[in-house]
Amino acid sequence: MPSPRNVIIIGSGPAGLTAALYAARANMQPLLIEGIEAGGQLMLTTMVENFPGYRDGIMGPDLMEEMRTQAAKFGTETIKGDVVKVDVCSRPIIVKTADAEYTATTLIIATGASARLLGLPSERTLMGHGVSTCATCDGYFFRGQEIAVVGGGDSAMEEAVFLTRFASKVTIVHRRDMLRASKIMQDKARANARIEWLLDHEVEEIKDTGKGEVTAMVVRSNKTGARREVPVHGVFVAIGHTPNTALFRGQIDLDQNGYIVTHDGAKTSVAAVFACGDVQDHIYRQAITAAGSGCMAAIDAEHYIDKLPEHLAAV
Ligand code: NAP
Asked: What is the pTM of this model?
């Protein structure tokens, strides 16, 4: 049986790759398991203009390639598989993929959160080409245009209000006539003259996949069944996120929405296990905040190892 790794990192978005970079530069020889959605949510975006250091912007997939190359340069070993099982309470920690089993002294969880999608084929095709799941990231591209936000929760209200800074009109499309959002967020949205409402409606299709850009959405009234086409240049899907924490349920403390609870930096409820990025952050959800928390996780893991009796004995 090979000796345990110092650290295994699960997930390869900005959080996981930054953790890998810092762990590698701290001589911890990290093993990074990429997961199915290698590169994370930035692989679904086009131009990223708010990551410091790229004054002309950088395409999301290119930014991830830069991070991957930088982490590899300092000795990160990367495995393409997806993790199917973990045991965070055994010592060493056990991580299994479909093909192999690995052990480690510390674990960094950077499995992210997936934006919930409507499930329309056109939504997938036009993602990053007029369809977005992040107003902070993409709002700027819709200056002076008419756009839509789908959803009736706090995120939809917040994104719609934010997007009125850029768009000439924001139509909120919600499937019921009652909003789920808190009253204060509803009031803010209702008071905004640039916001229009399409309640009791669902988006059935986003056009135009042939042109590779958003030109309109087809909505259906849930009351009458009537369909109509509404011209828009962008569709922001804000129907919630699902943290990728199924592997850890019952082993690590999660909050009521399934996000990993962290404290004092990147520490979780289990010693030697750290979490970073969107899997533990439902507020900021930015590439830069994910990267920052990845750095924290690597430093926390390094400090944890430094304090182990066997490490102290060896120095
Ligand atoms: P959420 O509260 O779960 O709301 C999701 C919304 O999307 C609901 O209105 C839901 O409709 C709709 N929806 C879900 N699936 C849909 C589908 N397939 N098709 C059409 N519509 C769909 O999610 P969230 O707004 O992202 O908020 C998540 C948590 O973060 C909440 O606790 C929220 O309070 C918090 N949050 C707080 C703030 C803030 O305070 N500033 C900002 C953002 C988020 P139904 O209502 O019909 O189910």
From this structure: 0.82
